[in-house]
Amino acid sequence: MSSDSIFSSVESEKRWVLTMDKIFSQPQNILDNKHILNIDFDTPACSVFRVPKNLTEEKAEAYAPHHLGLGPYHHLRPDLYKTHHLKLSAIRNYLSPEKLQNFRLVVEALIPLDPIIRASYDHYLDLDIETLAWMLAIDALYLLQFLKNYPRGGKNLAGDIMMLENQIPVFLLNKIQQCLQLCPENDESLKEIESFLRDQSPLDWNPSATMEIGHMSHLLQCLYHMIVFEEPAFSPYSLPMTGITSEDVATGVQFLAERGFPGASIAGQILSLVNMIPWSKITGLFKKRGGVEPTPLANKIDVPSVSEMSKAAGIKFITTQGIRYIRFEESKKEFHLPVIRITTTSEVVLRNLMAYEEASSEPESTLLLAEYLDLMCGIIDCANDVKMLKKEKIIETKLGDEEIARVFNGISKSTRKSETKYKSNVEKAIDDVNKRYNNLASVKVKAFFEKYVYGLFKVLGVLISIVVLILLVLQAFCSVFGCTRWFSKTPVGNQVVILRGRNVNVI
Questions:
Q1: How many Å apart are CA 468 and CA 400, to the nearest integer?
Q2: pTM for the whole thing?
């Protein structure tokens, strides 16, 4: 097979054809109420993504499981398959003998769900239908027992379970619970999941968010939802970058004109004429030819460090409820930041949350978690910055200051630029802090020296180096060929030679 193909063999192609034939040629079975397979081809249900290459190249070990492979992406990895017998042992201890005998019923219940299962993953799964059903039945049941018994014997596996590529769809967990009647009370299962996610969460949850695991795709998405919950109503901490558009004004004027408001009809005609003018082409005439809008580079965010803000600007750091409440209060010189708890698995959780956000979000959506991590990476330059945030209870950890600083300095800025027209509360806070900091006299003087004086010193240094190099070359030339006749002060025709005390004119 070609390296550009998703198929590894001819058998893979046949398996794919059989899957497509099952979907399209048997619609009655697919849409049967018994199988609840109402697939919307226009709206993919993909939720388990491969981590983008730009992230894995930066730190691959943060995204690939080390001990436990769950799901089709990592279950069959040779280096992880040695834990397969541990999964089976844990399942045997979890299920009663009667339920173990009925395990085949779980597999048979998952086989009709094959199209939905495959639609949950963003890569083609080159696996037989029954193989995939057995694999997910084992992994999903192992995950259920893990959540039931957590944290007993599971702390070292928590990081692997929270990785994006290791996620198990929630509807599979629910289906298995129904088949084996494992949890008649949904509240009990919800408490187990909530307890595990709270233990793994580096950040406080939004107080307005509710744990709706039934509406979530997997555990990582559920944690993301609880941290980055978007308020349905207008939030004072999320302000638009642009004002009201001309379309909004035209709609309002039309509404008033229909109700006989004086002058609204004339205003509507004027707005119609204004909207007909090709403003984009007119403004394009004043731009430089061949000019291209600069693309923001994925470098470190432009914001002063904690030490600089504290010493130069007198900014204080105050704890707040969550990342949607990050703000800077100019009048009080207070920077409100959420509490972040750093453990040995926190970096893995944060990186995979950011990977999920980047992979699942729409182009116009705000990458709020990525913006928050960019902010933290920007304000933490060294161990002293970590120490100051720990003193203000912004960072809670048992790890060393140097280690925490390395964690944040190692996370690169998000490479995907949000296309939303709204400024998030994090961007607004950064703008406010920079405005306060850059207006300080000491900062302006420093910026002037860096821009002009230090630059002049660099130019002078280069010129001096060039002059010294020329002199050295000249010295070497003169030592070989002699330079007396070229550098003598007296003309050759009037040279005076001293011979034994007598002056002799050389003509």
A1: 49
A2: 0.73
